[in-house]
Amino acid sequence: MDAAEFRAHGHRLIDWIIDYHQQVASLPVQAQVAPGETAAKLPEHPGAPDGFDALLVDLDRVVVPGLTNWQHPGFFAWFPANTGYPAILAELVSAGLGVQGMSWASSPAVTEVETRMMDWMAELLGLPDGFRSASASGGGVIQGSASEATLTSILAARYRATGGSVNADSDTTKLVAYATGQAHSSIEKGLRIAGIGTDHVRVVPHDANFAMRPDALAEAIAADRAAGLVPFWVCATVGTTNSLAVDPVRAVGEIARQEGLWLHVDAAMAGIATLCPELRWLNDGLELADSYGTNPHKWMGVTFDCNLFYTADRASLLGALSILPEYLRTAAAETGAVIDYRDWQVPLGRRFRALKLWFTLRTDGVGPAQAMIRDHLAWTSELAAWVAADERFEILAPHPLNLLCLALRAGDDATTALIERANATGTAMFTRTVLGDRVALRFSIGARSTTLDGVRSAWRLLQDLAN
Amino acid sequence: MDAAEFRAHGHRLIDWIIDYHQQVASLPVQAQVAPGETAAKLPEHPGAPDGFDALLVDLDRVVVPGLTNWQHPGFFAWFPANTGYPAILAELVSAGLGVQGMSWASSPAVTEVETRMMDWMAELLGLPDGFRSASASGGGVIQGSASEATLTSILAARYRATGGSVNADSDTTKLVAYATGQAHSSIEKGLRIAGIGTDHVRVVPHDANFAMRPDALAEAIAADRAAGLVPFWVCATVGTTNSLAVDPVRAVGEIARQEGLWLHVDAAMAGIATLCPELRWLNDGLELADSYGTNPHKWMGVTFDCNLFYTADRASLLGALSILPEYLRTAAAETGAVIDYRDWQVPLGRRFRALKLWFTLRTDGVGPAQAMIRDHLAWTSELAAWVAADERFEILAPHPLNLLCLALRAGDDATTALIERANATGTAMFTRTVLGDRVALRFSIGARSTTLDGVRSAWRLLQDLAN
């Protein structure tokens, strides 16, 4: 493909993306394909190249029908993954430049724009000063996902708890970690990867609102200490995946400080809500956290992947993740004048992801995200009122933000069947979870394209199908 | 940003990328900025959005001067990270669609196109049948980087070696891993992350060509067994970062089979060379490997991030990385009819990266990559002849592919100074390493834009500066 072809094809694809977004509401939300159906439309073996026109035809013929459309206004499944126009353009530029941000020297602007964006976002979210790059011991980095942020925090905590000895002696057998059963699966996965098996992960009881009970945490820590174990890491979630429950970060943090545990706060979904000053209550206690993560790629429209990971203890992070072979040594890094973000993450290589934040903040700013978040909260309240007024349904959890967990009183099988029937219509999509001992339909209002009318239609669909 | 603005800005940025590539040769290869210089051009605090035109001005004013330009024809540093026009367009589409590939159900086409592309690439690279998706126990997945591929293989091996018990009991203290001192830093980092500290990582001696000595590996394994330890993982590198040395995969693999170790083959840089059938000797012994990784984002022009990770033992991989909470359960997955790639990698979320391979293979095919690889090998041979003819220089390692490690006979300080002086010119960029006890200038010929004239100019620059 030469430059002239790239120009022509690129312009067509820009237009194609607009068409996709303008037509997405007419597509099914959930892909209506059977396993293997998409693959069967692709040749089994790579043939000779057949050109861009053929490719574009297949993009519509093969790919689009196989998509579950996360940008659809009827997407109420999992959590949102909004992709905004400014961030799409930034991904284009990042790919076009093709530079590496593994170290400062590998392309200084990648690092310096990222550091600045992390500071801008800390300010816009009202995060503690201890996470800023100018702080004595903290700072921030873009991770690819909350999973990676969590793993990174576990590794830093593991390093600190063992005085660094784990880097040599492999001994993680005394370390114990804490979270509720409502914490995200990436918590257990990250712990497992770091060599902390399920025998050493305590499921801390939660209260009726699915929030961690600090008293239960304190008891569990005491029991483990009595057994000769080493409590080292606790995860508090601000907005669980199941129900957007908010753990009491301040109370958990006070225990963590007293007991010498690393406190990680996972606010992957809900943290971005603090772009709205009236929602800053979600940040209460964060100054007690050793690390924190939230995802602009969910509710802010900064195209996946973009997780903001902050720590107040970068020395432990660097201790856990720095490896310096000869071929990565640079004069700039040896003086300590620069940041080498490879030492803040699991992989070595890194894309220029900070452009996504920079493009979004320079063009749209935070206004559209704030307005969207406020709409989604208001609509969730309206929805809750409708649900409460229909006696076939019940609401299973508090709903302070944009997720309503509901169920049919007729029982779990009826709720599961309702989700499947609704998703099969292609006009809305919900996911299922289990809250306590009940199957729940998660009605997550987070897509940028969703409207109040769309929420009302989706609710009417559920009402109709419940008959 | 509305659709009309996105269209206008998108078209301009497509053109901007073409301009960047057409002008990159006139920019310095290595960014000529001081630490903090780029950040100082950005406001300390986020202000009100000032619009796309202002942003575009700053892209040229702030970002470009702060880039080390990996697409520059004079880029001979580290390894290449070529970004090709088809892959850039695929990144644009991936960002535009904004779909998630964490599970089959989350967007079936993301998974099925990826599986098909992994099979196509296995065929194009001449990899063993045991890595194909149709094989009894293997398969492939796109990882973000070789670092992540390596970590994934370590986790699968750790699971298999402990019969899965590590997932519960945290005990990694008897496991021992093996690699030469020439293996990439991500090996040690991945092992450390997985709870295998440096006390349990054996640096296997290499021969005069910097390739692993199988006899030394066998000895080290025997000594560890005698000490009651559990040898579990060995990494053979096909094309080390230092010198592109090739470990004897077949001999290492035979020992691994006999001793029950997991063999991971890290061919991050060199593996892609097997797109050329005459270079398939690099694949010798791969049928003995439990896992393998190579990076189309280096030498094939499939924009970072795109690592191909194959395993012959997907059961161990899934045992190591599967976590199934209620909110991720889907009917399609429970029947076993589909692949959920979240269980093949560390993070949960994943982008539609397979589009980059699909776009590249459908438009350019492998012809341009094959031609480039053959050119680079030929030019490396020519360069080696020039270097050999200049008695001030010497060649420090074999150079079967596209990397020449050279040094000044005047000594290490002179070689280090030569690299710094060359990079300061902005016309070429090299990186430094240590081979044996000698400082080496790595002359890596891998950028798509490099020409033979450019190689000759860079060599003349080194000759001039050596005076």
Give the arrangement of secondary structure elements.
Two copies of one chain form a homodimer.
Chain A: H1 3-23, H2 37-40, H3 52-63, E1 75-76, H4 85-97, H5 108-125, E2 139-143, H6 146-161, H7 166-169, E3 175-180, H8 185-193, E4 201-204, H9 214-226, E5 230-237, H10 249-259, E6 262-266, E7 291-294, H11 296-299, E8 307-311, H12 314-321, H13 331-334, H14 354-363, H15 367-388, E9 393-395, E10 403-408, H16 412-425, E11 429-435, E12 438-444, H17 452-465
Parallel strand pairs in A: 1-11, 3-4, 3-5, 5-6, 6-7
Antiparallel strand pairs in A: 2-8, 7-8, 9-10, 10-12, 11-12
Helix pairs in contact in A: 4-14, 5-14, 6-8, 6-12, 9-10, 15-17
Short description:
2 copies of one chain form a homodimer. Chain A is built from 17 helices and 12 strands.
Would you give an account of this structure?
Two copies of one chain form a homodimer. Helix content of chain A is 42%, strand content 13%. The mean pLDDT of chain A is 96. Chain A has helices spanning 3-23, 37-40, 52-63, 85-97, 108-125, 146-161, 166-169, 185-193, 214-226, 249-259, 296-299, 314-321, 331-334, 354-363, 367-388, 412-425, 452-465; strands at residues 75-76, 139-143, 175-180, 201-204, 230-237, 262-266, 291-294, 307-311, 393-395, 403-408, 429-435, 438-444. Chain A is an alpha/beta fold. The first copy, chain A, folds into three domains: 3-69, dopa decarboxylase, N-terminal domain, CATH 1.20.1340; 92-363, Aspartate Aminotransferase, domain 2, CATH 3.40.640.10; 367-465, Aspartate Aminotransferase, domain 1, CATH 3.90.1150. In chain A, helix 5 (108-125) packs across helix 14, helix 6 (146-161) crosses helix 12 (314-321) and helix 15 packs parallel to helix 17 (452-465).
